[in-house]
């Protein structure tokens, strides 16, 4: 008897991409935005996040495990597909390709980012504005972070569009088109927040 | 790039990807065919068959291809024409860039030259029970009527000719994946919308939920761009996503299953 593992995993992957990972991305970028008000403001916000009750439990269940599932299944799923934008250069096919490229890049970026920040905390380093400032002082790291942020915001925004199809919410071509505008606005808004923050850390803004 | 065919041009050039048998190597061969007005790719292939000599003047074997209806309703003559999968019977030479490049679709096993075996598509239709079962030991009488607006969109879905073009364009249909492809998914929507076909709606949804089914769609939406019949495949896919989701909730939480699916399977 054929199994339904694909169907189930794909739905879990889709759901986790929005809840909790997508929501976490919004919260994370919003907290970072406090840097625009100054170092103190950011440190206060970061401290508040670090003082949430059940922090370890939340970090593991809301962030780590969903990320690992979405990432592992995402890589498997991305490599099941192929890229044929050469022959079929339709806008949606480009989005399909970018969804996969940004996903794979995010594995690298997020692994590095977690190592450099959250795992550094375990090694006894204090996570604060100064830490980020030092990281993006290096122009190569700044570029790496900018690409990472844009990958995450694109992947999430375009993911909302495909989420709506994966769950059968948007069926008509019209609703799918409407959703791509929504997705575009989400991408622009989150990218603005993310890029403005990182440029402020870098002392450019 | 060269220009579209002019009426005063004498010859049409073809570059054709050939293969002598299922596991044989591929090679390309060039042909020139004398121009006649209103030719399509098939009439040019017939011309080559009449006089199988390639562009170098060497005698060669005639080209193999598949066809039936010659009016874009059977799907048999699909091939890659100038990079795009489409039907060769409606590919008018006057509207094609020269040289005209022909190749078999890559999604299906090649039988010979441009002829492919689309068996997997028919297997997919069997798998999802893409029919309305009415045979029995007694006359079932007339079925329920279908609302006119539903009939209209269902008619659009019924135009599918299992040509395989949507599978060919889909990045998730390839030898690494077992994805059933857009055509069969859309047929589930068609037969589930039929008042009598709906009796078996759940069987079809469950077939779509098996490995290699609906879940393998990655929403690249190439299918809807290339379908020669303009079938709203991506609407069908989203609609089946909704139906299968509701179905799985209903069978988990609901009360209308005396025995669960797994008990029957065991
Ligand atoms: C910032 C972290 C991430 C967020 C917020 C996120 C969010 C999402 C969302 C909302 C979707 C849409 C689900 C759907 O299509 O139904 C999605 C899809 C996808 N994600 Fe992620 N994701 C993240 C990281 C990753 C990573 C690390 C990978 C690894 C490759 C990945 C691979 C994929 C793939 C391949 C899809 C495509 C699903 C499809 O279009 O059919 N994602 N993601
Ligand atoms: S859905 Fe369109 S492209 Fe796909 S097999 Fe049917 S007619 Fe061909
Ligand atoms: S011969 Fe039937 S579609 Fe071309």
Largest sheet, spatial ordering of strands of chain B: 2-1-5-3-4
Strand content of chain B: 5-15%
The portion of residues assigned to helices of chain A is: over 70%
Count of all domains of chain A: 1
Number of strands of chain B: 7
User: What is the chains' assembly state?
Assistant: heterodimer
- CATH topology of chain A, by name, is 3 helical TM bundles of succinate and fumarate reductases
Residue-averaged pLDDT of chain A: 96
Helix and strand composition category of chain A: mainly alpha
Q: Could you give the order of the helices and strands of chain A?
A: HHHHHHHH
Radius of gyration of chain A: 18 Å
Question: What name goes with the CATH superfamily of the largest domain in chain B?
Answer: Alpha-helical ferredoxin
- Bound compounds, please? protoporphyrin IX containing FE, iron/sulfur cluster, FE2/S2 (inorganic) cluster
Q: For the record, what CATH class of the largest domain in chain B applies?
A: Mainly Alpha
Could you give me the name of the CATH homologous superfamily of chain A?
A: Fumarate reductase/succinate dehydrogenase, transmembrane subunit
What is the CATH architecture term of the largest domain in chain B? Orthogonal Bundle
Tell me about this structure:
The complex is a heterodimer of chains A (205) and B (266). Chain A has 205 residues and is mainly α. Chain A has helices at residues 5-32, 39-50, 55-80, 91-116, 118-122, 129-135, 139-166, 173-201. Chain A is globular. Chain A has one domain (5-201): Fumarate reductase/succinate dehydrogenase, transmembrane subunit (3 helical TM bundles of succinate and fumarate reductases, Up-down Bundle). In chain A, helix 3 packs antiparallel against helix 4 and helix 4 (91-116) crosses helix 7 (139-166). Chain B is of the alpha+beta class and 266 residues long. Chain B is 32% helix and 13% strand. In chain B, a hairpin with a 6-residue loop joins strand 1 and strand 2. The interface between A and B is large, with 35 and 36 residues. FE2/S2 (inorganic) cluster binds next to loops of chain B. Protoporphyrin IX containing FE binds at residues 14, 17-18, 21-22, 25, 70-71, 74-75, 77-78, 99-100, 103-104, 106-107, 152, 155-156, 159-160, 162-163, 166 of chain A.
